[in-house]
Amino acid sequence: MKLARPLENLIDQLIKLPTIGPKTAQRLALYILKIPEGEARLLAQAIIDAREKVFPCPRCGYLTDTDPCMICRDVNREKGVLCVAEEAKDIIAIERTGFRGRYFVLNKEFNLMEDNNLEDFNISGLRKMLVSGEIKELVLALNPDIDGEVIARYLAGIAAEYEVKTTRLAHGLPVGGDIEYADEITLRMAIEGRKEI
Amino acid sequence: MYYRTRAIILKNRDFKETDKLVTIFSESEGKVSAVAKGIKKPKSSLRVCVQPFCHSSLFLSRGKGLDLITQGKIIDFYGNTRNDINSILHVVYMMELLDKTLIDRVPVPGLYGTTLKVLAYINEIGFNPLIIRYFEMRLLTILGYKPVLNRCVFCGQTTGLAGFNLAEGGIVCNKCSPGAQSNFPLFGESLALARLLTGANLRTLSRVTASAPALKQLEIFMEKFLEYHLERRFNLKNIMRILKKNIII
Ligand SMILES: [Zn+2]
Ligand SMILES: [Zn+2]
Known about the structure:
heterodimer, A: about 10% strand, B: two-stranded antiparallel sheet, 7 helices, 7 strands, elongated, binds zinc ion
């Protein structure tokens, strides 16, 4: 079936987005054709604005349109607790929990087996925060896999240089999950991380 | 076409939104790259079977391009190993060695068996540097680079030795190799340990006590020898050096 050129072009762009397959891309494109022109313009403008105005905060690496970001400027945040995450999307998830400390985002993927190097992490910002003496605890919110484990050891070593305590998020069972269906590794970690009640 | 195989998971990396590209050392097929679909979703039962250095029983389908892992069951996930960062790093280093030396779709049953034995040893008894050296030596031997360690590689002399010549793959004597500076200094205790590695089994090795300097020298020797023949450098070696510098392990 032959499609109008501009429609085909829109589908080609949408299909590049994560989780969007050919069918979904076509559905979205046809939907965009049906909405009022003003709304379509808003959508296009929102994409351009976000691209032009949002950047990683020079202090903490979180996505922001101000320098420093809202979190870094917030005086009501606990200054002593600094949470390190791999990506900004992890911070969005942690923010929803009501965590009130500050953040540092590594903004770099790390895979032990892909010839990545620990020294490629740009952690001069982290060192700056640690050297200030304000930080009392470094909370590592890293993925529960081997790569996360290795980054954690590396960062804990750096925190120790500044005599800052390091903690890691607990591994455990998903809330609402069935113990019966938990995989062995998760269950084992949950047993090791058990708490007195 | 479907096939079932036991496999050691060498590595995995992100591949599309919720999929991973997994490199396995299959018992029957050798090194294979296969896609595990949807494993970043929390309910995926495959996820745990494709973690690095798991020993899993996998069910795969062979397609036009990459194979697809459709089902899996863990045989051993080496839980004790995963609790010790030093063991983790060394076992991942073994996976890197395998990944960088195995050829796609060429089964190597001897090496498969050795890898399982070493994984089980570290999990049950704990990390021991000599066991990692044993693995390196077995790998080199199976690949056809077994070093000559008991006599001069040129004349067969067993005395007046002048170290190890990487290019010749063996010990050389003073007469055959006057320019001894280019040889690796493999003498005394570290040479005895290297000889032991080529013959002894895991149980014997676990009873051997060696001095720290000799173990260090042996480690450097094996690294140089591996790099020379495989023409590769090993990322995990580098990472271990960085972590050691930070006095973490
Ligand atoms: Zn910030
Ligand atoms: Zn000779």
